[in-house]
Design a protein that fits this description.
Layout lengths: L5 E3 L1 H8 L5 H16 L2 E4 H14 L6 H11 L3 E3 L3 H14 L3 H13 L3 E3 L8 E2 L2 E4 L4
Parallel strand pairs: 1-2, 1-4, 2-3, 4-6
Antiparallel strand pairs: 5-6
Helix pairs in contact: 1-2, 1-3, 3-4, 5-6
Length: 140
């Protein structure tokens, strides 16, 4: 794991709990184990919301509400960034500067707000830096 705080995007969480995700599930689960042990994991409210919707509605074998509720309750023990109005304005500025989607910009601003040094996601280019944040695709 890289040094500093590690912001985890929704896809990493989903793969960790999606029983049909194959090798990506194994990788994501190992990442979560390491982040639990190190205490470096950071999430945002947006990530938890997207995780809930995806793992209960959009995967091939959705998880039950009780299991997801318990999982989210556990993940709330991590550092969780709460987006506010200022977060939206920062995301808009990131969107303008880097021509990223607004939702990706919200993730980036949350990671920056938390002081994370790395964002784990498969949604952005591996190895690039945005707003001083290193993007890493752990599934490559």
């Amino acid at each position: 794991m890289p040094g500093g705080k590690i912001f985890v995007d929704t896809n990493v969480l989903v793969y960790a709990y999606d029983i049909c995700a194959g090798v990506k599930r194994d990788i994501a689960r190992q990442i979560l184990v390491e982040l639990w042990a190190s205490g470096k994991g950071v999430l945002s409210i947006q990530v938890l919301q997207e995780f809930f919707v995806t793992i209960t509605k959009k995967v091939e074998r959705p998880l039950g509400l009780a299991e997801v509720r318990e999982t989210v309750a556990d993940l709330l023990k991590w550092e969780v960034v709460v987006n506010d109005g200022e977060s939206i304005l920062r995301a808009i500025a990131i969107h303008e500067r880097h021509t990223l989607s607004f939702w990706d910009s919200m993730i980036i601003q949350a990671a920056v707000k938390a002081g994370a040094t790395t964002l784990l996601t498969e949604d952005l280019g591996d190895g690039i830096a945005v707003e001083g944040l290193k993007i890493k695709n752990p599934f490559l």
